[in-house]
Specification:
eight-stranded mixed beta sheet, 19 helices, single chain, 3 domains, alpha/beta, 16 strands, 527 residues, elongated
Length: 527
């Protein structure tokens, strides 16, 4: 981070030694400025900073220095404070460059009054949001805070003075937001994290509405902080974080990688990247990843990695809704969004968590002009009491509505089976601009074996079952679908990458310079 010192050069003699001068009134003011700046940049008490360093945790300013290019960070509001001894009021904010592009970065300084929220640092956050939105810059939050600052917010007067920004928690996804949960996150750190497009969490950090101590006092419930807001909860059950890492440095690198796929703002296309050498090399052996027996499961991620540019698959919510895969990737250098079945879990049957995960991903891609590619092997939706208790019909229709609202290109590859409503949700029919079939594709209202039982009342092993099933299998073949022009292509799997690259060019949003209509920019953040 640049010190941007304003001290003038001292006069020197012919040997280069400084000549003592009497301080002027103006120089005294400058010296006072520099002293105050040093106090601000010293942050909270030295003991707290030392404990962090010993624990391997970066402090607020070190996090910024790791993210931004050297000497590129310009801090605003560094002398803002509430009360005495509150450097930068606990929230460091400013502008810096990340891989050559400007961004707004806010970092909570927990060593200063727990980075608690005040009216003053709330104004800094509002300024950060306003500049990011108006000037088309990504916004990054390093979350770690204790909630509202007491006694400032205590009582009616404190509450009445807060909330001065009527759009404090309103987002229209004009620019990408990324957040890292790097300590205990209560209050605003939780709110701005869940409002962000990408959320990474360090193991050992916490994110919840309040601490376990407060919950125990208020309700008597015997809970621990990890139960209320640990990484397992948010990665596996709530889906509120996209990735989990072990260190602050890894979290910062994840944010940098996420931003590399994103445009700086919704009014431009994502940046193009160089195509790594060897991309597409595994296409010749792609059939090695698909078992011959339809009864065997397999890892769809291997197929995804074979198709996209080398090492470009950046998976989101890997531990949540495991029956589906959502990932940012690149094809011939272009950012794409991958939605894929995951047969390794429940055979790929979409559960409620997978529907939520995919819906959220569709919103992200449509908001920032990223084409969508479906890779499909789905037996349908996960059914049963658990699904109904989780409002499965509504989740399925939310997913469907999001898919049918997007204006970015949508391409679908049916790898193997796709049945019933899941066929439509995974891009079948007119829910994609182009549908591609592999010869292994199988499309129908339900699996042939189940159809024989429903239609003819025959069970496997009974006379006539095999003949009836063979008839249904002929009706679900790729040739039946291609014959109806419900799919535009039947190709050898080895051709998939090349065809997708060509079709992305065909369906590029040329008339708007790669920018979509953003019909989902106001979509809720957790539905």
């Amino acid at each position: 981070m640049s010190e941007r010192s304003s001290s003038p050069q001292r006069p020197s003699d012919e040997k280069g030694k400084a000549v003592p001068t009497q301080p002027t009134a103006l120089q005294s003011l400058v010296d006072d400025l520099n002293a105050r700046r040093e106090q601000v940049r010293a942050m909270g008490n030295p003991a707290a900073l030392q404990r962090r360093a010993q624990a391997g945790l970066l402090n607020a300013r070190e996090r910024i220095a790791h993210l931004c290019e050297p000497d590129s960070y310009t801090e605003f509001g560094e002398f803002a404070h509430t009360g005495e001894r509150a450097p930068a009021d606990g929230k460091v904010a400013g502008y810096g460059r990340i891989d050559g592009r400007l961004a707004v970065v806010v970092s909570n300084d927990f060593t200063t009054k727990g980075a608690s929220s005040t009216i003053v640092n709330g104004r800094k956050l509002a300024h950060a949001k306003r500049v990011a939105t108006q000037r088309g810059l990504p916004l990054i939050f390093f979350g770690e805070s204790s909630g509202g600052r007491i006694p400032e917010t205590l009582g009616a007067a404190g509450m009445g003075a807060s909330g001065g920004d009527p759009e404090q928690y309103l987002r229209r996804r004009e620019t990408p937001w990324a957040a890292a949960v790097l300590g205990q996150c209560y209050g605003s750190s939780s709110w701005y994290t869940v409002l962000s497009d990408f959320r990474v969490m360090r193991k050992g950090a916490l994110m919840s509405v309040s601490s376990a101590k407060l919950v125990r006092q208020a309700t008597g419930a015997k809970v621990e902080d990890e139960d209320l807001g640990g990484w397992r909860l948010h990665a596996q059950k709530t889906g509120l974080v996209d990735q989990v890492v072990d260190t602050d440095e890894e979290a910062i690198e994840a944010i940098r990688t996420f931003l590399s796929y994103m445009p700086s703002h919704a009014g431009e296309a994502p940046p193009l990247a160089a195509v790594p050498q060897g991309s597409g090399r595994d296409m010749e052996r792609i059939l090695d990843f698909l078992p011959e027996s339809r009864a065997r499961v397999y890892d769809m991620k291997k197929i995804v990695r074979a198709i996209v540019d080398t090492n470009s698959m950046f998976e989101l919510k890997a531990e949540f809704g495991k029956t589906a895969i959502t990932a940012l990737a690149r094809l011939a250098g272009q950012t794409v969004g991958i939605i894929a079945s995951n047969p390794l879990h429940r055979g790929g049957a979409l559960d409620v968590a997978a529907c939520q995960k995919i819906t959220s991903f569709i919103v992200l891609c449509d908001s920032f002009n990223i084409p969508l590619i479906n890779l499909v092997d789905v037996p349908g939706f996960h059914i049963g009491l658990e699904a109904e208790e989780q409002a499965a019909p509504a989740r399925i229709m939310n997913y469907m509505m999001a898919l049918q609202s997007v204006s970015v290109p949508k391409l679908t590859v049916i790898v193997r089976k796709t049945y019933g409503q899941a066929y439509l949700n995974m891009g079948g029919g007119r829910n994609s601009d182009e549908v591609i079939l592999w010869p292994t594709a199988e499309v129908g209202f339900m699996a042939p074996a189940a159809a024989v039982t429903v239609v003819h009342g025959l069970l496997p092993g009974e006379p006539g079952f095999e003949d009836k099933m063979a008839a249904f299998e002929r009706e679900t073949s790729p040739w039946a679908m291609a014959g109806q022009f419900a799919a535009q292509y039947v190709i050898a799997p080895q051709q998939t990458r090349n065809l997708l690259v060509e079709l992305l060019q065909t369906h590029a949003l040329r008339r708007t310079n790669g920018v979509g209509e953003h019909r989902l920019s106001n979509w809720p953040y957790y539905v």
